[in-house]
Design a protein that fits this description.
Blueprint lengths: L33 E6 L2 H7 L3 H12 L8 E6 L11 E5 L1 H4 L7 E3 L7 H12 L4 H5 L12
Helix pairs in contact: 2-4
The chain binds FE2/S2 (inorganic) cluster.
The site of FE2/S2 (inorganic) cluster (FES) has 11 residues, from helix 1.
């Protein structure tokens, strides 16, 4: 039988995709440069129609950004309370590992309309440490009201 190894380098339990055979509750999580939290709650997921997170993870694998110093992690979230901008995706940078943020706390809007090419472009911009707003323009993001 073929031995499956997950992205953390651990042998996987039969019948699972990534569950490690040797479970260590204190094992550190894998480094990420950026995490994209894509809303998978009722309204956004209906707009997305497909499991967007699985599709995005495949693209990241193909681009070699599923591991290493420029790793981009995709995770699903519940409702942000910004459903009118569905499908909402928040960009969060790992400032603990990478210092000064460039794209932290940006909320992408209408990502269900993005093509694979557009996602690849976003992943490239993030991995190269460029500024998303410069590359995509203000209109790609959910406007945020600032209170003084
Ligand atoms: S369901 Fe996605 S922001 Fe509300």
């Amino acid at each position: 039988m073929e031995v499956k190894i997950n992205e953390m380098g651990s042998e996987v339990v039969d019948g699972f995709l990534c569950k490690p055979k040797d479970f260590d509750p204190n094992r550190p999580i894998m480094h990420y440069k950026t995490i994209i939290m894509i809303c998978d709650d009722e309204r956004c997921s209906k707009a997305g129609k497909i499991d967007k997170s699985a599709q995005l993870r495949e693209i990241l694998k193909d681009m070699g950004l599923n591991k290493g110093e420029n790793r981009i992690k995709i995770t699903r979230t519940g409702c942000y309370g910004a459903c009118r901008f569905r499908q909402v995706a928040q960009v969060v940078e790992n400032t603990q590992a990478n210092g000064e943020p460039k794209n932290n706390a940006l909320w992408l809007k209408h990502t269900h309309q993005y093509s694979e090419t557009e996602w690849r472009n976003i992943f490239r911009i993030l991995s190269e440490g460029k500024i998303l707003k410069d590359e995509l323009g203000e209109d790609a993001f959910i406007p945020m009201k600032v209170y003084n």
